[in-house]
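Pasting as-is:
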Amino acid sequence: MDMEKATEGILMKNRSYNSSLTAGYKLYTDNFKKILKASWLWAILYAAACSILGTLSSIELPRFVLMTMASTSSEMPLYENLEYITICLSFLVVIIIGGIIEITFYSSGVSLLRQHQENASIPVPNTWFYFDKSSVWRTIKAAFFYFIIALIISIPFGLIFVFFLKDMLADPNSYILSLCITGIAILLIVCLAIPLTFSCTKYLLSHKGNFWKILVQAYPTGFRHYGYIFVVSIVCMFIVFIVSFITSLPAYILSEANYIANIGLLQGDPLGMPDYITTLTIITFFVCGFIQAYIRMTMLFPTYYMYGAIETQEKEILENKLKNEQDLYRIN
């Protein structure tokens, strides 16, 4: 029993997908205080970015929508409208900075998992201002390279939409076959992207190694274990979606109320909202952003054990193959 308990949390162990999910969530919940200590600062900064973006969306998005709609009848193009440009730049800056902070937040979890990989336990961070430069840099590089991959894949579909798909969607009954082919192509690319989960995890947990080299080497391995990765990924995403939706309901409701009220205000109606609505919006989006960060971080932990199980299975397959070859050699 003690031996079983000692090996329960180790990474390199052949597990079923159900066992990987259970072990991952257990590791997260059992060590949440340590995770919180290592990542609280980045979670607060990310929550602040969510608060700014949410408040901007509630107040400025109605103005943005109305200006876009009015641009068709206006003599001044949108790219010459200073207010429109300011709103766009504000959203862009907050999204970019918030994205970098979010990646840095996830790198705290990656850092703790890399230590768990070596010691089979997550140590207590020795400082309240935890920053693992190696994990941060590796996580940012992984996010950037996967963004580039997604961009390269998206550009052809964007061009297809602009030149063909937009007209097809306006009259879908006349282009059923073309729309079906496009839909199947998009679905196929999404399915082919699933093994990248294994490649990404392998890269993040490695202390050395080129991203593209690891991607090329690990992708075939991930594809061989496609079903395993698919089940773990889908279950994790489903859990994150459900929990995120429930915990974000206050922000959704408040955002919708703000949006409708500000649309009315721009059209000449009274705001009809209490004086403290802006403060309430800022606080609500901040709290929701903080919670959302830790909900999404949970995906790292089952994926971590999924990676360990696949590596172990590959090692066992190789050992069995070598053993069979040796047995065959002895017989001959």
